[in-house]
Amino acid sequence: MQKKFKQPTLKIIPLGGMEEVGRNMTVFEYGEDIVILDMGIQFPEEDMPGIDFIIPNISYLKGKEKNIRGVIFSHGHLDHIGAAPLLLKKLGYPTIIGRDLTLALIEKRMQEYAKDSIKQLKIIKIKSVNDRLTLGRFRIGFFNVEHSIMDAVGVVINTPDGTIIHPGDWTMEKKSDTHQVISYNHLASLPRPKILMLESLGSTNISRELVSEKEMYANLQRLINQAQGKVIVGTFSSQVKRIGDIIEYAKTIGKKVALDGYSMKMNVEIARELGYIKTNKETLISVNETNKYPENKIIIICTGAQGEGNAVLSRIIAGEHKFIRIKKSDTIIFSSSVIPGNERTIQKLKDGLYRKCDNVVHNDIMDVHVSGHSNTESIKEIIRQIRPDYFLPVYANHYFLKEAAKLAEQVGIPKEKIFVLDNGSILEFQNKRAKILNKKVDTNYVFVDGLGVGDIGHVVLRDRQTMAEDGMFVIIATIDRQSGKIKNSPDIISRGFIYMKESKQLLAEARKKVKDIVEHTTAPGASIDWVYVKDSLRDKMGQFLYSKTRRRPMILPVIIEV
Known about the structure:
Layout: E1 10-16, E2 25-30, E3 33-37, E4 53-55, E5 68-72, H1 78-81, H2 84-90, E6 96-98, H3 100-113, E7 123-125, E8 133-135, E9 138-144, E10 153-159, E11 162-166, E12 194-199, H4 213-226, E13 231-235, H5 240-253, E14 256-260, H6 262-273, E15 284-285, E16 298-302, H7 312-317, E17 331-335, H8 343-356, E18 360-361, H9 376-386, E19 390-394, H10 398-410, E20 427-430, E21 433-436, E22 446-449, E23 452-453, H11 458-470, E24 472-479, E25 491-495, H12 504-521, H13 530-549, E26 554-561
């Protein structure tokens, strides 16, 4: 009997980026062919103590490594490339595809992670948006997008069951007399059904008009030119074009520029090697040379505008920077936007700067930053231009996606053709019709802590949260294995639970309680079940301490047998 041939279907499976900002990674599967878009990291939330970052869970791809025809990277931000060194290795180093700066940033990250791993890379460079690739049953095309990092590119993925249009991260600049504004009208003529996957961080931004690059640079130049003291510009290290333009302007007015922050210096060096920006020895100085020049001749461009604890701006505010001290007459410019989730940290950073300086400028009071993301009008406009048959809002928290779905309805996309997915959802297209399957793939967090990848699970994280919230209570008891009695008084160590010098009564009661528990769990001459003794101490001391303090510290019993 002839085996019935199963018709392949197009599946779209987001492994991250649908419920958070970051961890962006999407799997496109058609039959036995797989194409992946982006491999990003997500930065930890406040309830994740000790975690460095989170990467996508690729358990769905286990056993399918040989089917991966290529990994396309839309641009070089860490929420799109940050997990590449870890995941490419796990997937057997499939071919990677991207533009020059994006690939250079990935290579640098690979080199830092494992020096020899760069030799394993198989690379296809996108030389032009007119390039076309065939990856199994997928035909891949590209288109230009506006974003806040150079070499960002939109991707077209053509299959027999639909054409996916994915701009990656994008914005839509208003009319400019300095360069051609990008239009997306040409994408309307792609084969149907057209499936638009649109980054939707701007779906709640109701500002009527996006600021142009020209207006932003005019403001920056005026601030730099009029500054009475030194200028400190806090921005993203990926803003290499903006950094290059500030260096060029500084040269024309005779000021010196110092870059500070490892990622910033690295990114500028990569951009310089690619010929994307120009630097010269007369203008660019090291940060330890800044004291050799008058303060009004110095511009410092640094990282840390998101309030990262160990970044340059935070160290400057804390007075811990080796070479830079803030004065009231300085001018500090936040040329960056607020990443969702960082609002409190950035407000704290601003408060610290306002205390030390009289001239702090940010986007709330002057346009000194152009976001790489859109607004509500831009989202509606790009949908009008592309005229998709299906709309999938992506790359943002769930509420952003829901708001983007409403905008799509306003410009005529039928509600039944709009899909708001979760991480792990499987959207299947067959015979040009779409449905969400009942099953989901595993997208549980994979935590990276130091050199450990995935070894910090939810149990360990819960323990860390417990210690952070209520501290720990260590009981050290020396027990005679013959009599089952405690020798001497139990030692107690408290960290983050109580201040021992002021809790002598509680400690005396706790020591007595430990002795009682041990007496009830051991018997003279009988063999002692040490696991049972420890479990009893953990449970009963937990109840005792809660009854006395209404707190639940982590109880760590340490038994010494003698």
